[in-house]
Amino acid sequence: MEAHIKQVIKQLERDYDMKVLYACEAGSRAWGLSSKNSDYDVRFIYVQRKNWYLSIDQKRDTLEIPNRDPISMLLDDRLDLSGWELSKALRLYRKSNPSIFEWLSSKLVYSESYSTIEKMRQMEPSIFSPVVCFHHYLNMGKRNFRDCLHSKEPNVKKYINALKPIFSVKWIELHRTFPPIEFQALLDQFNLPDELNEAITHLIKSKLTTTEWNRDIDLDVINQYLESELRNLESRAKTMHKEIVDPTTELDQLFRDTLIEVWG
Question: Which domain holds residue 233?
Answer without folding.
Answer: 130-237
